Amino acid sequence: MTYDPVARTLAQNAITMATIAEAEVHDAQVGALASAAKATSQANLASSKADMATGQALAAAASQTAAAQSAATATTQASIASAASTSASALLQSFRGVFMGALPTDAAANAFAIAQSIPLSPGVMYENTTSGKFRIWSGTAWGDYDATAAASQANAALAASQASASAATASAQAGIATTQATAAAAQAAAAS
């Protein structure tokens, strides 16, 4: 049997082309697998980043909620402190209506009462630093302390104690409110 050289060449060319095509298919498959692996890796990375962003968003929302709650608490504490301060001022004014403090003369006591808008009513007293005695307003004039003034003195001491306690409470509550307001501001800034 004789072979046709042209047919043989054509057959060899066909085999060569098939081998080349097979190699190209193999290369395409390898490339497709590599691209698929890369795409899967990038998708996993994107998913991880999305999960992380969601977590951070949730943490920021929780922090913002906590900051808002702290701000509300600070506002409440500031209101309480303000009310306590007002109460302490009123109590001090009430106390001043009974005991004006240490002054050198009756004229100085009169001037102090006018300057502080303290009405001179019976029982108002001051310590006269010149004579070393307590002086009590009778309703018409100043007189030295006597046994009938003991009740007024007891009331003045009680009012002084209450004024001091209210002032201490107001000061403590103002400190708490300031601390909470500072913390709330820091949390709000961190949440932003």
Percent of residues in helices:
over 70%
The major sheet is characterized as: 4 strands, mixed
Mean pLDDT, to the nearest integer, reads: 79
Count the helices. How many?
Answer: 3
Quote the distance from N terminus to C terminus.
91 Å
Number of strands: 4
Q: What overall form do the CA principal axes indicate?
A: rod-shaped
Q: In terms of structural class, how would the helical and strand content be classed?
A: alpha+beta
Biggest sheet: strand arrangement = 1-2-3-4
What would your notes on this structure say?
This protein is an alpha+beta fold. Helices cover 75% and strands 9% of the residues. The protein contains 3 helices and 4 strands. The chain has helices spanning 5-96, 106-115, 150-191; strands spanning 99-103, 125-128, 133-137, 142-144. It has a 4-stranded mixed beta sheet. A hairpin with a 4-residue loop joins strand 3 (133-137) and strand 4. Helix 1 (5-96) runs antiparallel to helix 3.
Q: In a few lines, what is going on in this structure?
A:
This protein has 192 residues and is α+β, with helices and mostly antiparallel strands. It contains three helices and four strands.
Features:
about 190 residues; alpha+beta; 3 helices; 4 strands
